[in-house]
Structure prediction request, 334 residues.
Amino acid sequence: MEGMDVTGEPWRARRVLVTGATGMIGSWLVRDLLAARAEVFALVRDADPQSELVRSGDLARVTVINGALEDFWSLERAVNEHEVDTVFHLGAQVLVGPAQRFPLPTFEANIRGTYNLLEACRLHRDLVRSAVIASSDKAYGEQANLPYTETMSLQGRYPYEVSKSCADLIAQSYHHAYDLPVAIARCGNVYGGGDLHWSRVVPGTIRSLLQGERPLIRSDGLYVRDYIYVKDVVRAYLCLGEAVQREEVRGQAFNFSTETPRTVLELVRIIQQLMGSNLEPDIRNCARGEIRAQSLSAEKARTMLGWVPASSLEQGLEQTIQWYRDFLRNAGNG
Prediction:
């Protein structure tokens, strides 16, 4: 998976802070920002040698700021001392299961972390000219009608959903109260190379099949989700980062989706077909605290931003499978 084809002009010499830079999306975002000749500053809490940011060598090409989202002064220092003009806030606790078992760290990282960062941006409005906040389809909570549209209320109920609803509303508040140049991205389930959370269905299924094991499905297999390829998500973030200066975009939230929802079982079957496997899934039906069905309308992003996904589910999964083949072969685990 290579970086996007960019001329670099919109991002050349921009001073960009990326939180969550060692995560799956953050790693690919940093790669494209570097390709576009931006100067990148990465907030890093824990060193992870298996992160794609490290494995690619890109970590050595960015300025690393050690700190946690929960520490306001680390964020203030990151923005102020490094004279940041653009922020991509991807840092979060991103797993539903841990949030359900013990919500406090999720609330601290996702809610406190968001208002800490936005407050640092507000204090240094003379520096920061755009901030893109990563929200989620989970922020909508359970809705009677699908697909989700941006006009729907945010009504998370379970801890992870609530953390995303709160962070999303806080970002909107900083725009409305302080005219902060903020835009919000709401994506479905993001997949792609570099996701090492094996409890997630895409990396977990691919690893199991590569190892000749039955793929594990925690739910009953009938939960419905949007799945979107990481490179399309990175394009969405960059698109928002460029557009946030437009009056009609500032303070707005945008859904990003392929608009082709699938059940978990359908997704696993597609991966099996692409990998030539007939191993039957092990359906545990033990998932708790998760929304039954989710899907997103991306009409607003199409009409206002001109964004459309470049990869179908099958195309994205083919590239993802190849990434994991290479990763597990080199790691000696597959």
Residues 104-123 form the longest helix (20 residues). The longest strand covers residues 39-44.
